[in-house]
Design goal:
The protein is an all-alpha fold and 410 residues long. The chain contains 15 helices and two strands. A two-stranded antiparallel sheet has the order 1-2. Strand 1 and strand 2 form a beta hairpin. The chain starts with 6 loop residues before the first helix and ends in a 5-residue tail after the last helix. The relative contact order is 0.12.
């Protein structure tokens, strides 16, 4: 029986994919140096498709976003009255960041809509899109010196986010393209000095290798797993106590010292470097949450808080003229802006990851989800912030749906 080609579905999927592609390249498709981007303009096109094809999904989005606005309003107003820095309420920031978060919710809704429109081909087409974007990002990182609006830490984070997919295909499916991607990613992260992204890849390789050994049907693999874990710990101890450096940075200074300071609650005197600033964000963030009884600052206000926190003479010079700064830490940004609700959200996500870990046998998608879930806490500190990292939400939503498509819902 001949299957009739459905041009209507193709058009709907094309619109959704086009809008998602504008989200992936949000920084490129920007009007001068403003916050106006092509994605934030054409997002309405995909919303219209979703309203027609998945009205229940849009209804849920509206309800959830309405709750988000109510919670955000309370937190923003409370923060403005309670903060000791004299930070006043700003309608400009309030509306701006509500719309930015709406765009994040919209990206997730578009991925879900693609799934519901064509479940049969979703996995194949979605991962093809992710791989296509990865090729473009790799090219951009190669020629970044000659291109505008190239943020290597952001692009590096995306490559790290899908690295487990390629690493699995390289090890288990012997795909040559996957091998080339893995080698190029590690090389680019090294030459571009993306330290956290590179550390994230090392963690992902270690975690996924251990999971594959644990998931193997061969009894001998369990013995290898034991020696692999012991060897990994031994190598880490040696490296962290040695004078080994990467691109001129001692591993001790960029890994061991920050961890020690975070555990002791001892911030760097100045937040003038990548390492010291990211470390202080965690220390000051935890301190603020305790003082604020785990109530959030409201969307976008974490950047204003940290600008007030850090004196001009102790911050990166190019940020002195700004009235808000990027945290470079997505999970701390969520915790600070949404308080206990943000923390619960992150813990629920980790709960799902741990439930997958204890399954007797794991599928390809489940292994990838576990690997990302355990390593994301490190490499997600590389991008500037959460509000333009649409690619991360796209990857997370797609992996959730791919796992659901395999009949496993956690």
């Amino acid at each position: 029986m001949k299957v009739r080609f459905n041009w209507k579905i193709l058009l709907e999927k094309s619109i959704l994919n086009f809008v998602l592609f504008t989200a992936f390249f949000n920084d490129w498709l920007r009007y001068k140096n403003s916050d106006i981007t092509l994605f934030r303009v054409v997002v309405i096109l995909a919303i219209l498709v979703c309203i027609k094809k998945t009205p229940k999904l849009i209804l849920n989005l509206v309800i959830f976003f309405g709750i988000f606005i109510a919670v955000n309003t309370f937190q923003s107003v409370f923060f403005m009255y309670w903060n000791p820095f004299g930070i006043s309420f700003s309608w400009y920031y309030y509306v701006k960041y509500i719309y930015f978060y709406f765009c994040i919710f919209a990206v997730i809704a578009f991925v879900f809509s693609l799934y519901y429109i064509d479940k049969k081909h979703f996995n194949k087409e979605f991962f093809l899109m992710l791989k296509t974007v990865s090729i473009i990002y790799i090219i951009a990182m190669f020629f970044g010196d000659n291109m505008k609006n190239i943020y290597v830490n952001d692009y590096g984070a995306y490559l790290v986010a899908i690295f487990p997919l390629f690493y699995y295909e390289m090890i288990k499916e012997k795909k040559k393209f996957a091998f080339a991607f893995c080698v190029l990613t590690i090389y680019l992260l090294f030459i571009r000095d993306c330290k956290l992204d590179l550390l994230g890849v090392i963690l992902e390789i270690s975690i996924l290798t251990a999971l594959l050994l644990r998931n193997s049907r061969y009894a001998l693999a369990r013995i290898f797993l034991f020696f692999f874990i012991i060897g990994f710990i031994f190598i880490c101890v040696i490296i962290l106590n040695s004078s080994i450096s990467i691109n001129g940075y001692l591993v001790q200074d960029v890994v061991k010292e920050p961890i020690k300071r975070i555990l002791e609650g001892n911030p760097y005197e100045r937040s003038g470097s990548s390492t010291s600033y990211r470390t202080n964000v965690i220390i000051y963030g935890i301190e603020w949450l305790k003082k604020n009884c785990f109530l959030g600052t409201g969307a976008g206000n974490s950047g204003r808080l940290f600008r007030a926190f850090i004196p001009d003479n102790k911050i990166i010079p190019i940020w002195i003229e700004k009235d808000l700064i990027s945290l470079h830490n997505a999970w701390m940004e969520i915790c600070l802006e949404f308080g206990i609700l943000g923390i619960i959200f992150l813990l629920l996500g980790m709960k799902k990851v741990f439930r997958l870990m204890f399954l007797p046998k794991k599928t390809k998608i489940q292994l990838i989800i576990i690997t990302i879930g355990l390593s994301v806490w490190v490499w997600v500190m590389a991008p500037a912030g959460i509000l333009s990292s649409y690619y991360l939400f796209c990857v997370f939503a797609g992996l959730y749906l791919a796992n659901k498509d395999e009949g496993v819902i956690v």
